[in-house]
Structure formats: structure tokens, C-alpha cells
Amino acid sequence: MIMMPSCLQAARLETGSGHCNTQVMPTHFKEILEHQVNAPIKCLCTVKEFQSLRSLRQHLVDKAGTQKKYACTVCCRSFCCRRGIRDHSNAKHPGSYQEKFHRCITCCISFTSDCALRQHIRDKHGNASTNISGADEKSKKSKAIRKYLENYFQTRSVVDTEDKKKSFRFVYERLGMILRSVKEKTGGEVFSTELRKAGSHATGLKVNKADEFDFNIPLNVKVLEVKRNGTVPYIFRDKYEKKEQHGPSPKNMNVDRELLKIPNGQFQIPEGYAVVVVDKNVSTTLDPICIDNHLIPHLLQKRFHSLIKETKLGMEDIDLNREAHGPAITMNMHPPNDHHISVDATTIIDWKGISVSDYGWPRLETRTVLSGQLIDKLINSGCQLTPKGNEFWNVSFSNCESILMKNIDAPGECRKKCHKLLKSNFQTWKSRSKTGYKAISSFIFKHVTFWTNEKHQQPGYWKDSNLDVCYVDTLRELKQSLHNKKLDNYFIPSENILSNRDERQLIELEEEVEEEIRALENIKY
């Protein structure tokens, strides 16, 4: 509560508890202003007096806190996240914002200067020299790990700019030729010639060399409705009969699969998937790949594969994989006198009718990490429907993932670096793997990065100077997910990304991650 010296009235805080850890609301300041006082204003809880409302307000923000717990020390404006106050301070009060780089190894509280840290150790932890000695030892080890990681990053993660430009130009021209030819063929009019960059190239997360590119290709279809709930009266026979797979994989695009009609709509639409209802009058060639106006993703994917196969005849520098890679059709291109390039082409349907907010995003913790402006941008970006399921379209927030990954770091921060280090390590692990890690993709690492970012909100934690801690924590987060065989989709938490993955591959990858953590912790310095 706040005491008004002139009339001895008390303006009680929100809960009326009289303690300084309760919330301060704007109405409290209005009550203060209504008192015409000449004497200093006093906080009854701490018995401190103040000469101005501004001083009292800052005291209340410091002691009581608000929903926006990051307050500017100059103008008292409050913000929900550190990024907000940092951007505000840099724009309005240059030089006023200081990051806390000096951390106490005993209680993990951070300070803006080494002097403040030493004083804290003397005040709170007794023998300063012993603690500082331990801090110095830990500092030496941290520097050694950072030096190793920086060297590894420069030698294994950085992509040569000229190689990237040359490889992209070759792929873009070849794939553009293929799509133009596909569009001219019967049934090809549903595929556009637009090539949208996707994956690591779109977000600047490519590592080592430019040997793989991802593209999204929008479909030319008129969508009437997208259903996320209910059942459908059809299923592929091989799934319905659940026979052991002794023949070709269902992913094999050269194999015809029978779509079986079942009565009364018995097949449930899974969480994170949808049924797309289209207007078949737009093109007569939609009939063979539709059931009751439902566009069947596997049949569309098979047609796309067939048309590419027909088109690329005579192109000896391109091989077409017979199996789909998730929602993508994969090609291997071979530029003359250069490294091979893997290309994933994914057909998509843009749909604004589904948002990340439909799945309970953002969470309360998310709002303390990401700025309101970035959250709004992600919510308004909609989704893409991709042919990842057999009967159903996958609700993909790959556009949100790209936007978030592009904006996840401020200058001098290392989330992207941690992600690229993880991808580089994975390439090494994959080269010596017994299983080949065919069920593992960088999609998993991306969501590990998002969750790790949300769990570690300490000021200055993601600075480059803390790379060693950040990367080891990211590895630990990945190891825990692999061990539990559970990693929630960052935007659809009810979806477990690791479900139905090869258990042998998860166990093998967990062992590799554990060994990497051990190697970093035992590094010589």
C-alpha cells in the first residue's frame, strides 16, 4: 500500500496484502495524483519516502512488479520481454541499457560488471577468494569450449558464398525448366511454376556446403473448405488391412495403391491434419486424384512425381528418387565438375483460415520471450497444407518456423549458431551411423532450438560469450527428448514429432549426443 502523507489515507495495492510483491495497477497511480500533497510520498511497505511520483513509481515497479516486468530505468515504461526494453532503450536512451555478462557460479545471478560480481560474492557467499578462484577455473574451461566451438563453426558450418550462389543458380534454372514443362502436360495445370525458397536456404541456416535446397510450389486449385475434424469414408487398402510390408514401401511413387471406400466415414482425421475440399469444375483432370471433391494428397504427389519423371527424360544430370521424402519429391542434380545437390520440391496450399493460435499458441512463457510484434506476425501468417499424409493434408507452420528462425537472434546472440553447430555435428554422426538416420531431419533440431530458447530466459544467456553453456544446454534438451521419445511440436504441442520414428535411430542418436556432451565437458584447457 501507498501512504499519502497529507491525509494519512492509504491507497492499497491490488491484493490488499500490504507486501511489495503484489501487482501495481494504473488505477493506483491515479489515486496518488488525486492527492494534492507537498510532502514526500511514502511507500508504507518499505517506509521509504520519495520526492516525486516518478521515483515512487520506479520503486513500485522494482519492488511490486507488474505484468510487464522489464522496466526502463530512465522513463519508467515497462515491457513484457527483454528484447522490448533493449530495443526501446537503444532507440530512446542510447547507452542506458546494460547487459549482465558476469554470472555468479554459486547462485547464477548476473551482474553488469566484474566489480559488482565480486562484491556480491563477498556479501552473499562468504570467502570471496575461494569463489572467485572457482569462477576463474570455470571461466578458463568456458573459454576453451567456446574456442573449440568457434573453430568448429568456422571450419564445418560456414558455407562458401560463391558455392552457394552457383549451386542455387543451377538448381533454380533446372527446376524452373521442369516445372514449366510439367505445367504444359495433361494434369499439370494444377501445379504452378512459382518457386519459393524454403528450408535452411530461406533462413540462412545452411551448413558446410550448398548440397541441398528446398522449394515450395503452390497449387493452382480452388479450395472450398478445409476440415480438421470428423471422419472420411476412404482409406488406402494397405493401411486398412495392416499387412506386414514385404513388398514396396507405400512411399514408393512408382507403386499404385488402392483407395478403399469404407461406409459411414469410419476413418478419423488425426490431430494436425486436414481434409481439403476443392472445386473440381476448375479442371477435369482433378477427378482421378479426388474422392467426393476431397483432394487426396498421396494421389496428387504421385501425379507430380510421374510428370517430373516424364519431363526429365533426356536430362542426364538429374536423378529422380522413387520414394517421397515426407511431403517432398526429391531429385539429385549433378552439376558438371562439382558436388551433387539434393533438391526437395514440396507442393503446398496456402491457407489463411488456420492459425497457430488455433492450437493454443502463444503460451504464457512464449510472450515473455518473443516480442508482441513478432507474435502477431506469426499468428497472421496462416499455414501451408502439405501432402505429408496419405489420405490427409498435413497442417504445416513452416512459414512460421522460417519467420521465427530469421528473427530469433538479436545482434551478438547465438541461437542460430547453436542450431548450425548441431546440424554440422549431425552430418558427422550420420556419416558413421549404422542406421543412416533416415527418420531424422533438421526439422527436429529446429523445434529443439525453439523450446530451448523458451526455457532459458535469463538476461544475457544467449550472448555469444555464453556459447559454451547455450550449446551444451541445447544438446541436453535434444538428449532428453530422444530418451523420452517425445518432442512436442512448438506450434502444435499435442503433436509428438518423434512418434512413429525408428526407435533404433533415436537410441543411436541419443548415444551420439551424450558422447558429444561428455567430450565438451572434458575438454582440456
UniProtKB/TrEMBL annotation:
Cofactor(s) for this UniProt protein: Mg(2+)
Keyword DNA-binding: no
Pfam families: Mab-21 (PF03281), Mab-21_C (PF20266)
InterPro entries, A to Z: Mab-21-like_nuc_Trfase, Mab-21_HhH/H2TH-like, MAB21L/cGLR, Znf_C2H2_type
Keywords assigned: ATP-binding, Magnesium, Metal-binding, Nucleotide-binding, Nucleotidyltransferase, Transferase, Zinc, Zinc-finger
Domain of life where this protein originates: Eukaryota
GO molecular function: ATP binding; nucleotidyltransferase activity; zinc ion binding
Entry annotated with the keyword Metal-binding: yes
Domain C2H2-type, residue spans: 70-98
Family the UniProt entry places it in: Belongs to the mab-21 family.
PANTHER family the UniProt entry points to: CELL FATE DETERMINING PROTEIN MAB21-RELATED, CYCLIC GMP-AMP SYNTHASE-LIKE PROTEIN-RELATED
The protein's name: C2H2-type domain-containing protein
